[in-house]
């Protein structure tokens, strides 16, 4: 950028002066892009290719990486733990995405019509989005404790329902982790849905009312179809979020991450443990490639669904 | 024509009159909102209790005390984590505001061969999940001595494709006439960007800044991997490490959790309008 200083009378500036305006602008453009190109090449693209390459090696931090073909993938697909983790990851997705979207749509739909204390109520729903999973993990773990500590069991006891094991149970732990995950993301989805609702022109509703449509019919025939781009965006956004779930699981099962008995372990936690607890870097890289493939499919589905509409 | 006008005035009237359905909907929304913040309320409530009162599950402490806060804050490590998180989130935010805007502007307002290719290349990085990059980043960090350093925590996030895309969208809306006029006045391209174009996209910059700050303040996965010594922990990693410390003292842990949550809540309360608008902008454009 210093060489581009046109006011200095030195030799290079004469060269600079002779260039025409559009050439100068091209040089400026590449000067602006120089550092970012280095960044994206060195910190995004090169590591991506390296991850693919490492997935074909037995690198373990101690010995230099050796090419072993698809052995990591064969090992992974033969590993019952991988399939358990795969199943857990999809449970988070299959339960989490529809439940969070339905709740957030219903809230957004009614909140959009509320005038009285609108900002305040919106804030109540949005606040959990601003928290960090590490802090909230503790709060929820405390909630799920048995009596006399746990708030939820304390409440259940007071209305005469049996104690629940929550995070200690193979059957309940995954749901117990999913609830805080949904809770934390709800505010964001509500805001996006409300933005989508606002974007629907009022004239559509007025016309529908003149035609004598009731609230239910308007919702089905106008609101939901016109909200499709927003809904697709949120389905993909939240699907990707649940497929990559880690923070909540790690922070609510700290003593035995992914436990009990791997019943809550998602793919990203398996990757973390393979790489940074057992240092099987090559094997972990193969797992990240699987995650990448799943996320790619989800993103491509989004593009396909939206293109079909237009 | 008259039909439309009457219908819309009718609508407006409907909106104002108070029907029982509206009241029920409002009440349910309000109760739902209270349920949403229940975990936060209990967290703050417990942070004000003494260890003897923790088992008393009443929301309003019998004798609220700030002792826990004094204890947690007087432990130097907590302040250190707090500083680490703030410094890292601020630096990364500044870097994103600078570089994402610069690249977004260049891609929106300059004509040169390869522009579209660069744009697609940057956009394609959105498809790459962080989890796939952490292993190569870890390798790179250990070879270059970046493990356990601020730089090591920060370097992966210094620029983002999302921010670049967002800023490009907004710079496309800046009229060329302004930029041409500045060019005629003899300003160089860098000054034109910084002094003329940037002030015209302040809403987008604030959205980007809020998002980047929040994202980095709450970031967990990479800081957990790249830090090994407690002095370098960010706040989330530090809070997460509490359990290994001692037998669980819930009132102190809730205080730590509260202290980790208060800054973002305060920022939100101060900037609520900006943040909500920012989320909407980012969600719709991004």
From TrEMBL, chain A:
| Residue ranges occupied by any ABC transmembrane type-1 domain in the UniProt entry | 86-302
Q: Which residue ranges run through the membrane?
A: 26-46, 90-111, 123-143, 173-197, 226-246, 284-306
- Coiled-coil regions, chain positions: none
Record localization: Cell membrane
Provide the primary localization.
membrane
Q: Name one Pfam family in it.
A: BPD_transp_1
Keyword Membrane in the entry? The reply is: yes
* PROSITE patterns in UniProt: ABC_TM1 (PS50928)
Cross-referenced InterPro entries: ABC_transporter_permease, MetI-like, MetI-like_sf
One GO cellular component this record assigns the protein to is:
plasma membrane
Q: Which GO terms describe its biological process?
A: transmembrane transport
Write the record's keywords in alphabetical order, separated by commas.
Cell membrane, Membrane, Transmembrane, Transmembrane helix, Transport
This protein's membrane topology, according to the annotation, is: Multi-pass membrane protein
Family stated for the protein in its record: Belongs to the binding-protein-dependent transport system permease family.
Protein name, UniProt field: ABC transporter permease
UniProtKB/TrEMBL annotation, chain B:
Location of the ABC transmembrane type-1 domain: 82-271
| Compartment(s) of residence | Cell membrane
Which GO biological process entries does UniProt record here?
A: transmembrane transport
Q: Which SUPFAM superfamilies does the UniProt entry name for this protein?
A: MetI-like
Alphabetical keyword list: Cell membrane, Membrane, Transmembrane, Transmembrane helix, Transport
Topological category with respect to the lipid bilayer: Multi-pass membrane protein
Gene3D superfamilies per the UniProt record, alphabetical: MetI-like
Record-annotated membrane-spanning stretches: 23-44, 81-105, 117-138, 150-171, 252-271
Q: Which Pfam families match?
A: BPD_transp_1 (PF00528)
Chief localization: membrane
Gene Ontology cellular-component annotations: plasma membrane
Q: Which family does it belong to?
A: Belongs to the binding-protein-dependent transport system permease family.
Its recorded name reads Sugar ABC transporter permease
Organism equals Devosia elaeis
């Amino acid at each position: 950028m210093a060489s581009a200083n046109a006011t200095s009378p030195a030799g290079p500036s004469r060269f600079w002066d002779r260039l025409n305006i559009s050439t100068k602008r091209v040089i400026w453009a590449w000067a602006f892009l120089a550092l970012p190109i280095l960044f994206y090449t060195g910190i995004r693209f090169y590591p991506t290719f390296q991850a693919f390459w490492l997935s074909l090696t037995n690198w373990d931090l101690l010995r230099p990486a050796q090419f072993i073909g698809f052995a990591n993938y064969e090992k992974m697909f033969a590993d019952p733990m991988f399939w358990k983790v795969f199943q857990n990851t999809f449970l988070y997705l299959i339960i989490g995405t529809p439940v969070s979207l339905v709740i957030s749509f219903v809230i957004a739909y009614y909140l959009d019509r509320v005038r009285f204390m609108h900002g305040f109520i919106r804030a109540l729903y949005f606040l959990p989005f601003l928290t960090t999973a590490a802090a909230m993990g503790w709060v929820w773990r405390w909630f799920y404790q048995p009596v006399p500590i746990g708030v939820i069991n304390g409440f259940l006891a007071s209305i005469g329902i049996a104690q629940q094991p929550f995070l200690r149970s193979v059957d309940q732990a995954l749901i117990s982790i999913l609830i805080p995950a949904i809770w934390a993301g709800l505010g964001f989805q509500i805001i996006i849905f409300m933005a989508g609702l606002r974007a629907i022109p009022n004239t559509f509703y007025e016309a529908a009312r003149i035609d004598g449509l009731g609230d239910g019919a308007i919702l089905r025939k106008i609101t939901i179809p016109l909200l499709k781009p927003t809904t697709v965006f949120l389905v993909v956004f939240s699907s990707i979020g649940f497929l990559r779930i880690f923070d909540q699981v790690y922070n609510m099962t700290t003593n035995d991450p992914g436990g009990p008995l791997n019943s809550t372990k998602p793919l990203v936690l398996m990757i973390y443990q393979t790489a940074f607890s057992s240092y099987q870097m090559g094997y972990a890289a193969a797992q990240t490639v699987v995650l990448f493939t799943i996320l790619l499919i989800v993103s491509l589905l989004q593009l396909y669904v939206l293109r079909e509409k237009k | 024509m008259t039909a439309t006008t009457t219908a819309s005035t009718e609508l407006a009237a409907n909106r104002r009159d108070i029907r029982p359905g509206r009241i029920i909907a409002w009440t349910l929304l309000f109760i739902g909102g209270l349920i949403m913040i229940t975990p936060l309320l209990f967290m703050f409530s417990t942070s004000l209790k003494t260890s003897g009162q923790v088992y008393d599950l009443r929301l309003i402490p019998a004798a609220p005390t700030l002792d826990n806060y004094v204890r947690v804050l007087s432990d130097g490590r907590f302040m250190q984590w707090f500083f680490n998180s703030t410094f890292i989130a601020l630096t990364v935010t500044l870097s994103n505001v600078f570089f994402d805007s610069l690249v977004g502007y260049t891609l929106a307002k300059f004509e040169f061969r390869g522009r579209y290719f660069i744009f697609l290349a940057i956009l394609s990085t959105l498809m790459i999940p962080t989890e796939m990059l952490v292993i190569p980043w870890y390798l790179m960090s250990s070879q270059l001595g970046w493990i356990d350093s601020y730089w090591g925590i920060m370097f992966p996030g210094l620029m983002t494709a999302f921010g670049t895309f967002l800023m490009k969208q907004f710079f496309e809306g800046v009229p060329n006439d302004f930029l041409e006029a500045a060019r005629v006045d003899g300003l160089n391209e860098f000054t034109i960007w910084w002094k003329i174009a940037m002030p015209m996209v302040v809403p987008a910059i604030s959205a980007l800044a809020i998002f980047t700050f929040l994202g980095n303040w709450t970031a967990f996965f990479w800081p957990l991997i790249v830090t090994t010594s407690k002095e370098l922990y960010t706040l989330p990693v530090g809070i997460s490490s509490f359990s290994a410390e001692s037998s669980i003292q819930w009132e102190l842990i809730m205080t730590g959790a509260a202290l980790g949550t208060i800054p973002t809540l305060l920022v939100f309360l101060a900037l609520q309008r900006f943040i909500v608008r920012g989320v909407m902008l980012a969600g719709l454009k991004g």
